[in-house]
Amino acid sequence: MAALTRLLERLEGLREEYFLTNRAIDEDRKRKYKAAVKIQRWFRACRVRAYLRHLSKMVILIQKWWRGYLRRKHFREIVERAYFIKKQKFYNEMAVRIQKTWRGYYVRKYIHNFCALKKYLKAVSMNNELVRHELQEYAEMKENEEKMKDLKKKEKEKKYRARKMHYLLSTEQIPGIYNSPFRKSPDPMELLLRKSKPLTHRKQPVKSPFADELYGWPTCKEPPAFVTSLPLLPADRQKPQGPFRDPAEVLRQRYKPLEPTLRVRESMYSPPAKAREPTPREEWRNPIHDNKTLKHCFHQLLSLKSLEKLTPALGK
Amino acid sequence: NSGVVCLLRPLLLDVVPSIRQTAAIALGRLADYDVELAEAVVKAGILPQLICSLPEENRYYKKAAAFVLRAIAKHSPQLAQAIVQCGALEMLVICLEDFDPGVKEGTSWAFGYIARHNPELSQAVVDAGAVPLLVLCIQEPEIALKRIAASTLSDISKHSPELAQTVVDAGAIAHLAQMIPNPDAKLKRQVLSALSQIAKHSVELAELVVEAEIFPVVLTCLKDSDEYVKKNGATLIREIAKHTPELSQFIVNSGGVAAVVDCIGSCRGTVRLPGIMTLGYVAAHSENLSMAVIVSKGIPPLCVCLIEEHEDHIKAAAAWALGQIGRHTAEHARHVAVANVLPTLLDIFVDTCSSEDLKAKATLKNILQKCTYLPALEPLLHEAPPSIMKLIIGQFSKVLPHDSKARRLFVTTGGLKKVQEIKAEPGSLLQEYINTINNCYPEEIVR
To answer: What GO terms in the biological process aspect are recorded for it (chain B) (predicted)?
Structure first.
C-alpha cells in the first residue's frame, strides 16, 4: 500500500508529468514531423528539379536536333529556289536581249523601214517631176494648138479680105496703094492681092423648105404646112432639056398624101399593134393541125417548083 | 397668166401637127420662166394630154414635149413628182429610143432635171428603165447629147449607193472613162462630175472607177484651161482618195499629188477647194502618205491659200489640211513649222471675226503636240492665248531639259523672261511645265 500511495502521489505528478511529456513528445513529434516533411519535401523537390532539368535538357536536345534538321531541309529548298530564280532571271535577260534585237530588226526592216521609206519618197518626188513635166508639155501642146487655130483663122480672114478687095490691085498705069513707086519691092499685101481670085457675087443660099423633109421622110405624113408655094427658081436658069413634066405636077405627085392601110398606119406601139404581136407566137405553139399528109407535102413541093420555074433569073 | 394655159390646151389636140408642136413649145417656154406658171400648167391637167400620143408623134413634137417636161420639172420636187405620177416616165423612155439625137437630148435633159431633186425621183427614173438607154446615148457621136447624158447619169447617181450601183451595172464607167480625153470642155466637166458622184459612195465603187484606168489621164484634166474641168477633176480625185489608204497610195504613186498641188497653185477661189481637201484626205491616212505630200511640195500652196483667200470655208479647209499633214510625228510638224505658217494659223485662231468653224479648224493643237522645232515656237510664245500657251510651254518643257544649245537660245531670245511673266495656278499642268523649265536653269538666271 505504501507503494500505491507513493504511486498515487506520484500519479498526480505523473499525470502532469505524463501530460507534460506527452505534450513535449507531441510537440516534438509535430516538430519532428514537420522537419521530416520539410526535409523530405526539400529532397523530393531537389529530385524533381533534377528530373525536370534532365527533362528539359533532353527536350532541348531533341528540339535542337529536330529544328536543325528542319531548317537544313528548308535551306536546301531555299537555295534551290534562289538558284532557280537566278537562272530564270538570267534566261529572261538573254531572251529580252534576243527579242530586243529581233524586234528592232523586224520593225526597222518591214514595218517602219526607214531606208525603204526614203527610197519611196525619192521615187515619189521623181515621179512627180516626171508627171509635172509631162503635164507641162501637155499644157504647152494645148496652147500651141490654140495658137495655131487662131493663126489659121487670121490667115483665112486675111485671104478673104484680100479676095474682097481685089480691086486695090495695081494696074499697068496706076500703082495701087500697096505698090508705092518709092518702095523697093511691093508690099506683101500687094502680092497677096495678086494671088487671090476675086470673089463672085454670093448666091443667097436657097433654103429649100424640103431639106428637112427629105431627111425626115419616114416620120412625116404630109408636106410642112407653112409651104404655101413652090420654091422660086431663078428666072434665067437654063431649063433642063427634054420633055420633063411640070414641076408643080411632080411635086403634087410626090406629096400626094399617103393613104396607108390600117395595119401600116398604126404605129408599132399602139394597143392594136401590140395586141397583134403574140398571135404568130401562138400560132407556132398551137397550130391548127400538125399532121402533114403526103398529099400536103406533094402540094408544097409543086408550088415551090412552079415558083422556081417562073422566076429563074431573079435568083441570079 | 390671163388664161393663156387654158387657151393653149385645146391647141395641143389640134389636127395639124405643127400647131401641136408650136403649142407645146409655147407651154414649155412659159413653164420655163416661172414656178407659178409651171404649177398652172400642171394644174390645168395638160400633162396627160401632152404625153398620151407621144409615141406616134414626129420628132419635133417629141422634142417640144420633152422641153415642156423639163421646164416643169426643174423648179421643184413636187412638180417633178406630179410629172412622174402622170406616167410621163414611160413615154419619155420610149422617146429615148428614138433615132433623132435632138429628141434624145431633150429627153435625157428632162430625166436629168427630174432625177436631180431627191432619191425617190431618181429611183423612179431608174425603175422606168432609163439608165441603159442613157448609157447608149453616151456612146452617140453628138457632143451635146453626150454632155446631157453624162450630166443625167451624174444626177441619178449622186443620191445613194444603190442608184450609183445601178448606173455602174449598166456599164457606164467604161464609157465615161473613155470620154475623159475628149477635147470638149463642157463634156469633160459632166463626165468628171458623173464619175465623182459614182465614186463618192463606197470603197467598192471607187475601186471600180479606178479600175477603169482613169489615172493618169485624169491628171491632164487638172491642167485644162477651163476652171470647172480642173475643179471637177480635183473632186474626182478627192472622192477616190478619201476612202482607204490603199487608194490614196495609188494616187500618190501615179503622181496625182503633184498634179493636184500644181492645180491648187494655178487656181483662185472656190475652184481650189476640192484640191485642198484632197491633200488633207491623203495626208490624214498615214504618216508615210503625209510625208509623200510634204515631199511633193504640198505645204507652200496651202500656206499661200491661207493667206490669200478671203472665204472662210476655203481657209478652214486649208487649215484642216495643214493640221492633217502636221499631226503625225515631230518630223511632219517640223516641216509645217518651217514653212512659217504657225503665226498665220494663230492669227486666224485669235481673230474675232473668223467663224466658229474656222476657229475650230485652225486649232494648232494637233501640230503643236508634236512640234519640237523651237525656233518656230518662240514667236508664238509672245502672242498666244492661254489654251495654246499651255501646249507651247509643254513642248518647251519636253525639249529644254535635254538640249543645251536650245536652252541658251531660249534665254537669249527672251523666252525665259516671258515664261516668268506667265501666271499659273499652282498645281496646274502649266505650273508644272514652268517648274520643269525653271529647273533647267541655275537659280540666278531664273531670278
So the answer is: epithelial cilium movement involved in extracellular fluid movement; filopodium assembly; neuron projection extension; sperm axoneme assembly
